[in-house]
Structure formats: C-alpha cells, structure tokens
Amino acid sequence: MKYTDHGVENLKIAYIGGGSRGWAWKLMSDLAVAEDISGQVDLYDIDYEASLHNEIIGNKFNSAKGAKSTWTYNARRTIDEALCGADFVVISILPGTFDEMESDVHTPEKYGIFQPVGDTTGPGGIIRALRTVPMMEVIAEAIKEHCPKAWVINYTNPMALCVKALYDTFPEIKAFGCCHEVFGAQKVIAKAIREATGEEVADHRAIKTNVVGVNHFTWITDASYHDYDVNKIYADFVERHYKDGLPKENPASTFECAHKVKFDLYRRYGVIAAAGDRHLAEFCEGSWYLKDDEQIHDWGFARTPVSYRKGDLCERRARSERLRTGAEEVKIENTGEDGVRQIRALLGLEDFITNVNLPNRGQIPNLPLGLIVETNATFRDDAVDPVFAGEVPEGVWQLVSRSADSQLIMARAARERDLDLAFKAFVNDPLVGLDIPTARALFDEMVENTKKYLLEYIR
Amino acid sequence: MKYTDHGVENLKIAYIGGGSRGWAWKLMSDLAVAEDISGQVDLYDIDYEASLHNEIIGNKFNSAKGAKSTWTYNARRTIDEALCGADFVVISILPGTFDEMESDVHTPEKYGIFQPVGDTTGPGGIIRALRTVPMMEVIAEAIKEHCPKAWVINYTNPMALCVKALYDTFPEIKAFGCCHEVFGAQKVIAKAIREATGEEVADHRAIKTNVVGVNHFTWITDASYHDYDVNKIYADFVERHYKDGLPKENPASTFECAHKVKFDLYRRYGVIAAAGDRHLAEFCEGSWYLKDDEQIHDWGFARTPVSYRKGDLCERRARSERLRTGAEEVKIENTGEDGVRQIRALLGLEDFITNVNLPNRGQIPNLPLGLIVETNATFRDDAVDPVFAGEVPEGVWQLVSRSADSQLIMARAARERDLDLAFKAFVNDPLVGLDIPTARALFDEMVENTKKYLLEYIR
Amino acid sequence: MKYTDHGVENLKIAYIGGGSRGWAWKLMSDLAVAEDISGQVDLYDIDYEASLHNEIIGNKFNSAKGAKSTWTYNARRTIDEALCGADFVVISILPGTFDEMESDVHTPEKYGIFQPVGDTTGPGGIIRALRTVPMMEVIAEAIKEHCPKAWVINYTNPMALCVKALYDTFPEIKAFGCCHEVFGAQKVIAKAIREATGEEVADHRAIKTNVVGVNHFTWITDASYHDYDVNKIYADFVERHYKDGLPKENPASTFECAHKVKFDLYRRYGVIAAAGDRHLAEFCEGSWYLKDDEQIHDWGFARTPVSYRKGDLCERRARSERLRTGAEEVKIENTGEDGVRQIRALLGLEDFITNVNLPNRGQIPNLPLGLIVETNATFRDDAVDPVFAGEVPEGVWQLVSRSADSQLIMARAARERDLDLAFKAFVNDPLVGLDIPTARALFDEMVENTKKYLLEYIR
Amino acid sequence: MKYTDHGVENLKIAYIGGGSRGWAWKLMSDLAVAEDISGQVDLYDIDYEASLHNEIIGNKFNSAKGAKSTWTYNARRTIDEALCGADFVVISILPGTFDEMESDVHTPEKYGIFQPVGDTTGPGGIIRALRTVPMMEVIAEAIKEHCPKAWVINYTNPMALCVKALYDTFPEIKAFGCCHEVFGAQKVIAKAIREATGEEVADHRAIKTNVVGVNHFTWITDASYHDYDVNKIYADFVERHYKDGLPKENPASTFECAHKVKFDLYRRYGVIAAAGDRHLAEFCEGSWYLKDDEQIHDWGFARTPVSYRKGDLCERRARSERLRTGAEEVKIENTGEDGVRQIRALLGLEDFITNVNLPNRGQIPNLPLGLIVETNATFRDDAVDPVFAGEVPEGVWQLVSRSADSQLIMARAARERDLDLAFKAFVNDPLVGLDIPTARALFDEMVENTKKYLLEYIR
After folding, report:
1. B180 is catalytic
2. Which end of chain A is more exposed for a tag (fewer CB within 10 A), N or C?
C-alpha cells in the first residue's frame, strides 16, 4: 500500500470465501464509496467459478452510480496467491455445504432439541465447529506464511471458535471477529427512546453501549444517549411490550423476532441482551424458549429451516448470474456494516469505536483469559485495542460462563481432533439435556452425517 | 482460658443451638476424650428446656467410661450470657421448624420439582436462606459485642450463606463452616483402592485430597495415597460400577446413596465429585437426576421426606429423655467429626489440615472474591488459613459458577430483605426451570407458608 | 442543557479555580471556537476578584475574531452557586500559595534532594498532596450535593491523588484527570519519524500510542503510524541522540528538556517513557538523574525554581489586567488541549480517544485495583471507558509499582489525616533515601513550613 | 519404595552435590533418626572423590549412637545412575568454585557496592544465577528422563532462580526450594515473647507465622502464639531494641546479626521481615544499609568475605578426612532442618506445614504468576500445596515487586543465554545505582572473571 495526500492507494485485500453471493457484494459496495482508499481485492474460494463471477461483478462496481474509488477484483486459484502481500484479509466461508448444516440443525429434532439457527452453540454449533476449526487453522498458517502483518477480519461462524483457532494457530495474528448482531439491540433501544420521548434517533450508532459477553450472547451493561435515562426508558418499554413483543417488519421472516426473549431475559436479570432472540434462546436451557415449535412461536420468533437457506441460495445464484451478465445492474447501497470503516481506521484515516470479538486479555475480568469475547474496541492506525468492558453482571454471569467453559473445551477438542472431548462439551450444552448414552447416540449420528468433513477426527 | 504444661484449662465454649439432640452429644463425646483441654460449655437455645436437658446430659459425660477431661455444661437463658467471654462459638441451629422445612421441600413437588434434601440450594435452600440469614446476623452482632476474638464454627445450613452472613455482618469475625460431606467421597476412593489393590485404607483421612467448590458441591481435583495412581484407580472403579452403583449399607436409608450420580458426573467431567449424591443432584439441572421419583430411584438414591425427619426428632426426643433421666447411659463414641481437633489446633496443640468453608480470598482464582468456598485450610495456633486450591476445573466450572452467582445474589437479597431480588436467584435455579409467572407463584406460595419467619421481608 | 439540531445549548460549566490566569484563558479560547455548543461558565475561586476579572475577560471572547459560539461567564461567590446544576465541572486550583510550593521544592535541597518540579511525587509532591486532598474532598462533597451527574475534569496536581480523593469521597462521581504530558512524547516520536523518513507528521495525535502508568510517569507500550515500524525508528533515534539529546526550542527554559532521561530510560528498559524528563527523573532513584545541579545539567534539563513561578505569576497578573481593561485584546489560539473535545464527545457530538487518569478497574492488570492510572479511554455520549491497556512492562513495572504503592499509602494518610502514615510514604520515596531520623526531621520541617494548610493533621 | 506396616522401606534418595561437606552430613544425621523410613542414598558430585568420602561417612551413621534406621550410601559416577528410579532428589550444589564467588562478592567493591552475602540478589546474585541456571536445566532434564515422579528438594542459591529453572525446564517437576532463613525471625519473636511475658517458647515452630515474599526477602504478615498479642509484643520489642540491636551469640561471626535492619524495616513498614539482616539489606537500596563497612557495622552486621568461606572449606575438608578415617566419630545431632520431615510427610507418614519456595499460582495475588515465591505449604502424602498467603502488604510490596521483576528478567536472560538482557536486571538492581556505562563495565568485568562458567552466553 502507499500513503498519499488523499489517503491510501494500492491496498491489497484478500477475500477468503470470495465466491460469496451476499457478504462479498456488500463489501464491494462499501469499498466503492470509500473515497480515500483504493487498490485490489483478491478473491479466493474453493468454488473457483464463483470467485470468477465475483471478479466480474466486483469490477462493475467501479462504474456504478455513486462509486468514488476504484478497485480491481481478481479471482485467484490458490489461497497463497490471494494472501501474498495482502494488507487485509477478509474471511467469510461456509464450512461444508447446506447439507451438513441440515444435519447440524435438524438431526437433533429427533431428540426433542430445536435450534433456530444452529451455527454458534448447541449441537449444531458444536458439530459445525468441529469442521470449521481445521479450516481456520489452514487459513491461519497461510496468513503466517504470506502476510503475517495483515489485519484479518473474520465473519465466519461459529465466530468465537473461529477467531480462537486463528489465534491458537498463529498467536501473533492481527485478527478480530466482526458481527452486526449488537446493532439490532441498539435499534430496539432507539425505538424505546422514540416511544418515550418522541425523539427520533438518527442512527443506531448514536446509542452508546458498553458490551460484554460472547458472540451472539452479548449484554449491554451501560447504554447512554444524550441526557436521557436510557436504562429507565428501556425498563418501562419492557413492561409495556413484554406480553406481545414488538411487531416484525416482515411477519413471515424466520430471521426477525418480536424481542420477547430479550424482554424476558431483561426481567430475569435486569440487563439488556444484545443479540437476536433466535441466538439468545440457544444459549439458555432448552426448556425456557425452545421446548417445541409452539413454545417458540409463543415467544415470537421462528426457527430458520435449512431448506429455506437452500432456496435462498438458489435465488442468490440466480442474482449472481444476473449481475454477472448485466441483466441486473450492480447498485451501491448503504449496508450499515462496519468492515470498511474498520479498514479505514486501521489505515489511520479516522478513529473508530465498535464492538468486535477478540481474545480476553482482561477486558472482561470475570471470564477466562484467552476466551474469545465480544466487547467494544478502539480502531486506530494499525491498532485494535479492546475497551475495558468490566465484569459480566451477576445473574447473567452464570449463563455466559457456561458458554465460556464450553468454548474452551471445544477449542481444545477441535485443535486436538478429539471427539471424546468434544462430546464433553456436547453433553453439557444447555440445549442437550440428555443422559450420556442418548446424547452420545445423537452426537455419533451427527458426526456420521458430516463425516466427509471430519475425517481427521476419526482414527 | 489458661495455658498449662499439659494443655489448656478454663476454656469457654458457647454452643448456639445448644438444645440440639444430635450434634451436641457428639461434641460432648469428643470433648470428653480430649485429654489436654478442659473448661465449660455454655448452651443457648431458643428452646431453653432443651438446653437444660443437655446441661444434665453433658455433665454426665464427665463420668462416662473413657472420659479423659472434665467439662462443665451450663444452660443459659440469653445468647449474651452464653457468648460472654467465649473462646469458641459453635453454631448449630434449625432455622424455623420442620413445618417450614416441609414447605421448603415438598411445596415445589406440585410444580414437578423434587428435592432430596432441600436445605442448601434449589427452591428449598433459597427459602431456608431467607429465614436463616437474619438469625445469623443477630448471632454475628452478639459475637461482635461479647466475644469478638472467639473462633466461630458454623454447622448450620445453608452453610455457604450462613458463613457469608457472619462475615457480611462482622467482617473481622474468625469464623469457618464445618461439614463432613467430603469424607464420604474419601471413603469411596478408599473402597476403590481396596478393590484395585486389596489394601485396606485405615482412615478416610489417609486419602489426601485437594478440594474446590462450594459446600455440598465440592470437587476433588487431586487425590493421593502412597504410590498409587489414585485417579486411574478411581476411573477404573467408575467403569466397573457405573451401571449398578455401590451397595448401600442400609438399603432403606434415604440418606445413603449408590454413588451413581457421582460416577455419572465423573464420566461427564473427569473430576471426582465430593458430596453425597442427594446433594450433588440438587446443583444440576432438574432433568438430569431429579425428574421424578422413578428417575431418582434409578440413580440409586432417594428423597428424604420431612415426615421422616419429624419422626426421627420424636425418637431423638425420647432418647434425650432417657439420657437425661439415666434410663440410657451416655456413651463415648468415635464420631469422626473434625470439630474438637480443630479446636485443639486453634489452641496450638497440634497442626491440622482439613476442608472448611471460608470467604474466597483467592484460594480458588476462578470464583468471585468474597464467595464462601470450600477448600482445605491449615489450622494452627489461633490461625486458620485456606490452602491455595487452584481453579475449579473446566466443565465443572460452569456448574459451580452457577451456584456461586446465585449465592452472591441470595446473600444480597437476604441482607437487604429483598424478595424480588431473591426471586431472581429462585427463577434462575437449575431445579426451577419454570417461566417467570409460574416460578413466581411457587415462590410466593413458599414465602406465604413460612411467613412467620419472613416478616422482615414483607413490607 | 438542551439538545438542538445543531448541537447543545444552555450548557453549564462550573470552573473551580476560575480565577486562573492561564488555563482558564485556554478554555475560553477553545470554547469560543466550538460551534455546536454554547452556554454559561460559572467561575469560582477563593480569590473572588480574580474570578471577577475572568468574568470580564471571558465575556470578551464572544466578540473575539474567530469566535463561533457564545458563552456567558459569571463569577460566583460560593462554590455551591457555581456547581448548582452544572453539566461539567473543571477543577484547576493551586493548593496553597507559591510560598508553600517554595517549601515543597526547596526545603529538601538542604538534605541533598533536588526536585525539578516537586508537585507530583518526591517530598514536595507528598506534602502538596497532604494539603490538596482535603480540598478535593470538599469539592467532591459539593459536587455530590449540587450536581452529582456532572462530568468532572481535574487538572490539579498531584493529579493521581486528586482524582483518587474525588472518587474516595464520592464513589459515583464521573471524574477523570486530564494532562497533556503524553503529547510531548508523541512529538518526539514524530521527530524520529521525520528524521528517519523525511515525512512530516501533521499532528502528534496521528501517532497512535498505547499508554500505561501513572500520571507524569507514563509509558508507551505500543506506538503506530501508518506502515512504519515505529519502535525500530525510535530505537535508532535514541542511539543517535542518546549522548547529546535533542536541542531545546528555548535553551533558557526550565520547562523544556533534551529528552536524555527519556532516552536513558529507553536504553534501560526498551520502553518509551511518555512524560517530560523533569517529571520522569522524580520517579527514579535520586542518584540516577538528580544528584546535584551538575548532574541535572548533564542530563539536559533544569529545575524550575519557585522564584521563577512567582515572577511568572506577576507577569500573568499584569496580562490579566491588560486583558480586563482592553489594553490587550483577547485572542483565540490553537491550544492543543483536549478539554473541549472531551466535553463535545461527552455530549455525543463525536467519539474521541485520548489518555486520561481514572481508577484502575483492571485496565492495567498488574497494578492494584482502585489506583489512579493513566491509559487511553474512549469518550462517547455520557460515557468515559478506559481502554484495556495491558500490563506495565517488565523492568518498568518495578518503578511504577513503587509509585503505585506510595499513592495508595498517601491516599489513606491524607484521608485519615495521619502524618505518621504519610511519613511511611515519605521515607520510602525514591528521592528521599535518608535514614529514619533524618527523613523525619525533613518531613517535620516541611510540615511546619506549610502548617497553615495542615491544621487538620495536627492534633 | 515399599510400604510396610511400620513405614516405608527401600526408599531411594538421589543427592546431587553429594560430595557436600556440611549439608550432606546433616541429612545423614536426620535420616538416621527417622525410624519409619529406610533405603539408599545415591551421591553424585562433579568431585567424585568427595562423594566417595561421603559414601564412607554416610554408612558409618548406621552404627552411630541413636541411629534408628539403616541407609546405604553409594557414590555414583554419573548423574543418570544417581537419579535412576529415585523417589526423592536433593539438590545442593556450589555453582562454580569460591574463586567465582570471590569475583561475585568482591569485584563490585571497586565500584562502591558492598554485599554481605552476594549469592541471591545484587551483582553477585545475578552473575551467580547466570552460571547456575544452566546447571539446573541439566539436572531438570535428567530428572525428567530418569525419575519424573520424584520429589525434588532444592537447597542451592540463588534459590528462586534455581527453582524457576527447574520448572521452566520440566514444568511437571515436583520440586520445591527449602531454606531455614525464616526460623531466625521466629526465634526473634520467641525472644520478644520471653522478654514480655517471661514465657519460654519451646521451639521456634510453635510461633505460627504467615509468610509472603521471595526467598531471603520474606515477610511475616501474621504471627500467633497462644493467646498473646504477638504483633503488639513485637512492636514494643522493636522500640526497646531498635537502637542497640540484640546481642550476637558469637560477636565475631560474620553470619549473625543484631537484627537492627529487621527492626528498621519494621519501623518503616510495620511488617516483620523474616530473614537475616545480611540478606535483607541486599534487597534494599545500597544507601540504606550498605554504603560502606562503617555503615554496615553501625547496623550491627558484617559482610562475609569469601576468604572466610575458603578457610572454612579447608576446615570442613579436614573434618571430612577425620570422619572418613574414623579419627572423628560421626555424631547424630538435632539439626533443626525440615528436609527429612518433609520427606516423611510426602510419604504420608504425617501432615506437615512449613514455608517453602514454589511457583506462584496465586498464593500471593499481588505478585506475578509463575514467580518463585516463599509461603507456607502443606506437605501431605505425595502432595505439596501452597497455603494461600495473601498480598504482600502495602509499602513492602514495592520492595518485593522490584525483586520479583528482576527475577523474571533474569530467568529469561539465563534461559536464553542473553547477557544484554541480564544487564537490564543488573543495572536496575537496588545495590547497583550506577549509570549505564559504569554498570556495564562492572558487569563485563564480572562476566570476564567467571567466564569459564559462562561460555554458552558468549557467542
């Protein structure tokens, strides 16, 4: 890269999973409007053709309406080529296919275990971690070899275990994990403020929050906005909406929620949970929110079936085709994502504060050191530093520590390719609640279903 | 007290709950055979007559066969008289009556919650704590006034919250909580050694253990005996007996257990649980071991109904009458309790190491400071110091931290006489697993049943 | 205050020490150019006339060239009036007069102890703390009563003990201590970069640093600027300039330094010290840099005699008179201070990251909790959060821990008005190095000299 | 080894440095009177002849008057033979010869640095560490290979760095460092009790103390004996004896002290220092107690010249010859050492509590983890566990943290054979106080003088 009077030129960004038909396009859009940076984006994907398509699509963004900078997109046949000399690395992969995810999410149903997402924790998250961690190890090794000083942004789930694998493999890596889940809670707080005061909050980022926890199970211990008493406003809001929840924008969506779980947790603990209800529910005991579809429905959310994801993929494939051929024009949109802002901050073009996933060095004193935690961090010229976030509050601590403990066990189990150890986390998971033999049967079945990706574990 | 060439004379021990028809007699027996100490024991009980009976029984021990020292027992009408000038204070009270305990243990059954003991954790433990903590505060205030330098031994349950209340009320108090529950686990280990090697272990104390956890939910992270590999021996023992458990001495007893829960926990976590199964089960999710009586039976233990305790009390009353009138002779027995040994050590007559309950100053680094934890401690001349016990191990940590978090909430709830805060611990308890309104209904019913002892909470 | 579309109106700032003839004028200048905030500044000073003069001077800034906002300045006769309803409080007082400071700085010379500044640590800093802490307690009590939710910015030295007194008196206070000392080190780094690369760094703030330590004894554990290897550049710079130091802008100034102490400390510890050499030297053993004036001169700095400060005060008084009467026009200048930027950030008008003094909640894990430490912090809407700064590095840790320990002793000594305890810190100070009786003689003499302000200590 | 009804037979003890003409004979005497253990002691020494002589002397102990058990002593030609199958390892070596020690102790005198001992800290301790750590690494490697489960007792100085090297080399080692220095402080306390109360304390061990710190710089934070107020008694004792100190038993001895340094430190910090004054003084700034021989004399102690040690060695050689040939009879004495008692405890024959050197796992929360610290520990069957000792107290903390920091730097410097890093500790040492070039000249001279043992450092 090269610093000029107007910013930075000749940046090289490597995109692992660069055949993505979603995230990748958002990044393209955000890069196109970043006027003080320019350079190249190297796309690597195990589906080389997909990255070739994105090369074409990406390059179209340079002439999209509103584009302010120029980026050259290249599909690369090897990860080494993509990483070589990179200043930034974006990791956004799908570990396995939706067939594996189908097993992750739906096999446990036979045992009465229902997962709305199934990619972070619970039986699904655990099995997904088993196949993802080895991939992350490969990526970390390649980064160590080809671009050890690059900043690495991970979007892949299970977020915490992915970031942990990067650090465990290459401790000097400059990596963090990026997730927009907290924004949703900030938007709920903004709604509460509007309802209480009539004041419209321009941007969810104007709600300043202190975040503690682990990815998809984060908690806001302090929220402030101007001279309002935000905690009081939120407490009143919960009382008003606890029973019916908030209306969804799209009632049919299986991604949205009525925030009733969030409100229930607030009544239990007096702390604002900062993720979507579908994620939050997966970290609690199964009997609380996930006993069956009826209970799930009563709590105002739904499970996302993998069949939906498969259908959606078809649509995205079709759209990719349209974008590639020009049947649909690429369009710059306001994505609301942090990624490019983080990149600019790391180049010294602005200071930026947002929540990310990093190893716990003490920013959350009552969670284990080395655990991947989510807190605010400062992004400055070539530096990411966690903000001291304080303790996970009383009450909530026991829920978060359960997940923390499991994360550490799973990290070791995956690193050591040890299915028996992984089973210890599995049988202990709040969603599982089965006796040892039954839990083992489920575990073995899920391993069997996805064994194509677990060969290193089976000796 | 007065040091002589042969030990210590003129000791004064205050016994709060001195009308006890069980523990008190064991203490009398142990004191009678302690040849290098003598003095007086002042008995205080809200049932003055019971303490008067124990005055008579206690004094009979001086002429029992095998008695080696002389102690004068006095029933006292006020706690102040009993404590005035005491060198040691023993606290062993029943908070409320068995009627209250009946509500603690059996009311939750209507909601599908089954408690084998119900005096430590779970709904029963929580309500019991509400009525016990204020009593402990009164006792601590009286100790502060009348004998601030006395050593205070608590036997009352819920142990952790009782000891916490003592320290919260009078931070300079020299108190610890004493419980023999770990001995049972040491005996199981001794059995495992005998089975594996043929060697008879003379005394459970010969099994050296490192203990971490909270009372009734303690874990042995290290066990040693001579040059054996105790952990290996125990692991093999679990494999052999996991399915059928160990035979009980008295199959009809509701206090004994087959240790199947202990073995199941070992298979889950690889750590030796160090309490009776009835206690251990109460700290786990209800669905694991306590779903219903059939499941409980399958796991090889039973619930102790309060009706049994009421019947037993009648028998103990009758025995008290026999002892008092001489119809039965007092008899010195080997109680296996630590109390008198601890007293001798605190007088400088020997050094002694055993497990007790103390505020966490860092002896368990991954539990909160100030929590009452159970670890080994050294007992020396006027000094009790916790042994550094190390971290609660991976896996188990999440179970213990759940209880730890609850302890801290409950300590504050009781101190501040705040039922709403207590309900936060209640609804969060692993045995409860109810939604908020249902849990509140149960909570309110249990409070109502025992409100005679909870007037300070109801404003 | 009142939020509008353009920012915040009707702000109320209370300025304690508002008769200041230096800092106050900088604040006036910075407020005048802050276009999105306006309101009133209430000035309180024990020298009421001085605050009256500043009322007049302050109001002139509204019509100064370049002024973009309007502020009403009012001199207030009582601290209560000044604080009542304040949104922000600025504390910048001189504890005692320069006569007391003369004793602080120069009395120790008779014992061979030479202090370049004498207001932070060493004998001078310790005696100054004794008279300052009670003043801070009074201010904190008044804030608690009149504006408990105000943000409080302290500039008074000894910084750490002043901020600690604020928190010890009113634990919920929203206070931080602000000092520009680190900027000097950033400027030295900027010089090193220019020398190595020819590149001019626009602003010292462009050098991103991670700061750990205590005020005036801070250390930069990480510095970054674009893609340069700043640590390497600095190490080379030290090697080149170690012997001769850097030229001063004004060779006669007793405030500037040649940075030779800073370079010597870098060679000793491999860490960049981040304060002026006059301050740094006072935290090291006296024999290192402060044996006598010759050694001080060889190290490229000088002591600031209090006579200089007295002369300077005369000049500032004269200038105040000129500004008040209009003989000199008030002029808006670029002060480089953080204060107004912090205020804007706390109002939610921008996010801001800078170094400040706050209680250690764990942001520096190897210093005691509760110690006032200096690290970066994020300033956002109604929130200041320390950045997790990490450990004080090996080697340096022992120097900083010495100061930390002393801070805690002195805080307690001042709070409890205990001269004997203060003497424990005094005799232990690295600059003192005297035996107990000699140190006590010096201590007593310094107390006697300033006893007008220490009456509460002398019982 | 083999457990019998009466104790343990066939124990194997390996003695590294087994040609010792002092410690070895004490161990022989203590083993001879331990009636419930017996076995063999394998002696290894780089001076094989010396170990041969000790073989002969050791075997004579079996028939000494009062001997109660039988031990076979064997001189071994290789460390491997000595260690093979050992149950216990004793390490007591002299690193280098007294010629090297002469340089350690006396070279710094040219620079005005006076060391009473010079084997633990200060310039002498640092250079000694450089040559000792590699030897410890060799021993630890051999233990790992030949007897990984053996208990290892180190007596070699510098104690802390030796034990650290053992653990750094073989983290699973079961090692601790044993030093009788604290006993001296307990004896002073016993004197204070006698003077205050007339009561004779039978044994220094009857004074129960809580110990924190690092070897030779330990502090007693709590001392108890019966119902006396020991802290008050000690404070009064210090006031009476501060000026003149206590009389030495042998005024000519350079090993004894008048305890004036100990009393001075008590007046400075209010904490009882628990080592001989010669050691204590070396951890403080040189100007306090070690400016010159006159100051040293005034403080009531003396430096031990290495010439004395050389002379003493001649005498011990002569005595060895007499013992070997029978010209002098071996005699069982009461050594007062802990070693054999620790061995018996580790065999499960008694529980024992004493102070030893172990890695800090948290037993002293305000010192770094991994530092070798001295606290009490429990010795039980195959288990040594540190007692939780609490924080190093305010005031003292800064002195101990200085040494702690240096220990960590030196451990790394020696492990990495890095003289430049070792120099960082050297120039920072409280006794050194020289500027960088002068300190480097001294350092280089001391390295040169002892380079025979430092070849691995010089590349």
Report:
1. yes
2. C
